[in-house]
Amino acid sequence: MTRIVDIPSSRVSNFFRFQRDPLGFLVDARPLGDVVSLRTSSFQPTYIINAPDFVQELLVHQEDKLRKGRSAGVLRRTIGDGLLTADRNAHRQQKRYLTPVFYKERINRYAEVVIEETQRLADSLTDGVPVPMHDVMMQLTLGIIARTMFNTEVARDKAALAEAVDITIRHTASTIFSPLILPFNWPTPGNLAHRRAIRALERMVYGAIAAARGNPEAYADSLLGLLLDTKDEDGLPIADVEIRDQMMTMLLAGHETTANALVWAWHGLERSPGAAAKLRLELDAIRLRGQADGERPSASGFYRELTYAKQVIQETLRLYPPAWAILRESEPGLEMLGDRFPPRSSFLISPYAIHRNSDVFGDAEAFRPDRFEDGVSGWARFAYFPFGGGSRGCIGSQFALMEAVLILGTLAERFDFVSVPGQGDAVPEPLVSLRIKGGRMMIPRRV
């Protein structure tokens, strides 16, 4: 018996509904069935995937038959052929030489940088003075990624670089789901602004490459140093343009997503006083243990103690996964779990919608970090997948989780954050990753 159901609404109404409110469209489609056909053209049929076992088929078991397609083509305008956009063989090769950057011992060293940068931010905050939380988190995670991955200080240029990232993200998002993709060399206002933003990011990237070539010992433990030492299949150093592509990938995928998740975490704690109180109890207990021992734990030790803070981040990633949609396309026809899909099928997987299944999570719209108290083993493998899955799952997921938990714990030691009155409810904005529409002005309150 087939598990594919047709969406009851028309193709035209589906198109306009998705353009107007993609998240609402995907959430409403989830209860319709495990696989929902959008009844698009037979030339390129499109399906929404809602069942974890079908997600696993697409991201793991059938991944060699699929490509990222349209989304990768649009992202390639900014990041080139980096790990996020490379196909099959190139992706496997790149992942092989990038994996050591995220070994456990390196992540432990990165933790010290996360604490240092976050403490620097905390020192700059003034009790009672509102801050644009999205901008603050973006500049913080940008500084962290620059130091950990490129061994580069960007203190003077943080605001300009963060703005350049924002421009590329917005223009990319508007293009991915546009019915008509204009050539990137057309001088539209959006393309011109996007290209200026890329040049601003490239100045930092190529400057770091030149500095690393001039003093390689200073960059030995960074991603940049690893890339300079990497050889291709012919034993030759990889070209600067490939190093540029990987650095741009880390810049865009490696900090904007974490910044957005953190803003959602502060929002979640604000609207869940019980969760905020439980986090405060954990931080007080850690502080008292440190006083009894006569010393503060190391950054990696602090991370291990932040059990509830980790649950806060995991719950934030459930409700507001940065990668709110995952796209895949097939060239050949596919057979999955007893159903056949024609050649040139497109598949849309939404962690945002799947994570809101109350049959799995119970009261799925509520912000309840303690649902992660026993880990994730009680759920189907792809009922919760904020970092994707399969060989194309986020290579930096452990780093990203560590970074977000340490930032949350370090700032929450000194401040609570409350929204400036009059902003209304936080509304998700589905760009390349998921952010609060219009940002969020928040007031730091010293604790």
- Top-tier CATH class: Mainly Alpha
Task: Provide mean pLDDT, rounded.
Answer: 91
Strand content: 5-15%
Tell me, briefly, the overall form: globular
Q: What's the number of domains?
A: 1
Q: Poorly predicted ranges (pLDDT <50, ≥5 residues)?
A: none
User: Count of DSSP E strands?
Assistant: 13
| Strand order of the biggest β-sheet | 1-2-3-9-6-4
Textual characterization of the structure:
With 447 residues, this protein is of the alpha+beta class. The chain has one domain (4-446): Cytochrome p450. The chain is 53% helix and 10% strand. The chain has a 6-stranded mixed sheet. A 3-stranded antiparallel sheet has the order 5-13-10. Strands 7-8 form a two-stranded antiparallel sheet. A hairpin with a 3-residue loop joins β11 (428-430) and β12. α6 packs parallel to α17. The model has no long low-confidence stretch (mean pLDDT 91).
Topology:
Layout (H helix, E strand, L loop, with lengths): L3 E3 L4 H10 L1 H8 L5 E3 L8 E4 L2 H10 L4 E2 L2 H10 L8 H11 L5 H21 L6 E2 H18 L7 H19 L12 H26 L8 H7 L10 H31 L2 H21 L5 H7 L1 H13 L6 E5 L3 E3 L2 E3 L4 E4 L1 H4 L3 H4 L35 H16 L2 E5 L8 E3 L3 E3 L4 E6 L1
Helix pairs in contact: 1-2, 4-8, 6-7, 6-17, 7-8, 7-11, 8-9, 9-11, 11-14, 11-17, 12-14, 14-17
